[in-house]
Amino acid sequence: MLLNLTEEQIIQLAPDASSVKAGKGLATGTKWVLLEYSERAIWGHCQGSGRTPYQTVVDVKNIAFQCSCPSRKFPCKHGLGLLFLYASHSDLFREAEEPEWVTNWISKREEKAEKKERKAKTETPVDEAAQAKRQATRHRKVLNGIDDLQVWIKDLLRNGLLNVPERAYSLFDGIARRMVDAQASGLANRLRTIQEIDFYNDSWKYKLTDQLGKLYLLSESYKNLEKQSQEWQYEIRTQIGYPQAKEEVLAGEAITDQWMVLHKRSRKVNELNTETYWLYGRQSRRFAIYLNFITPGSLPEVNLVPGSVYEGELCFYKGVNALRALFKTSKLSNDAFTPTFCKDLEEATAHYREALQQNPFTEDLPILVENLRLAAKGNLLYLQDAHNKLIPVNVEDATRIDILSVTGGKPFSAFLLANDISWELNSIWYQSDYYFWRDERN
Q: Do residues 349 and 391 make contact, with C-beta atoms less than 8 angstroms apart?
């Protein structure tokens, strides 16, 4: 077989539930007048209401779609239907030479990828004087913004925090906009995160003071940037909102491994869709985060399927225990594996404390733990290990019900994102099978 995707993994590629339903409706041999495959792709002709069948192809090496139908959804129902059909009835496909329309499409994709790689390697002359001037101007703007932020934080604490919940939006929105004007988008994002705290939950006081403390520490660190090590300078600048050029990242040392996709999260803000993928290296045992930024009308650079494994090279951004990375090379692999888990919550919390000591700005730390159960205590939900140690966990109600239906209340292994107040449960392994729940918010 070319690829071994489960139905759940294919569902994660769909743009919405209606596309999944329509795609499943096309996952039958009677809907297709042609079904073929090669080493690189599967393709077919789907008979629609018109005289001419739609030509649909899937690049199975990099999971990409192309269809002659007029749908604006990506992937369309025909691409999903073709994948659903191949996953369930691969015997209906016959091996064949690629027709010209398939070869041309894949060749253009490969040519585009090669062109992008050549561009990344091309050394374009840099006007160092102009660059230094721009950097100095931005540095002054950030410092001025930080001065205003620190005065704002001190005034907020001086006036007290009890009335923050009732005026959270107006309170944080203005200063967040000021940070955007100061070209400190990282500080603006932190302020918006504070603004989104659930102030109806009793834990809001802890979350607010924790976030304000980190915000002040970060702003003070930038004011003393030159006193920091080079690694910390990269970390602080990134946290403030300075970008690291892709070319610079890809020029760094690459880690070659088999990378399993642990989880995918989609967030849409002001028409920009951000896809976040958490990865885990089989040999390196290293976590990584890959980001896709998708503007309206554009297609994602990479389609990663949760639960799948990709062989390739990852280049990591500079910083203190940085997780964000870029693929230098990648291809889908059928060589599945199970990651290495912490044996209990004590080991997991020790790992979390160590990460915080190394970098106090650490948030959403990826952790894998085995032998867990969901446990309710009053209105709160916890993770419980074999030693009866408990830790608060954040799980959507629908996901909690799904987990209980899958496991029957028996122990499972989990991928978690750890934070100070509670940990977020995102995907599980039960009896060696991987389960993932769609994570989308606007």
A: yes
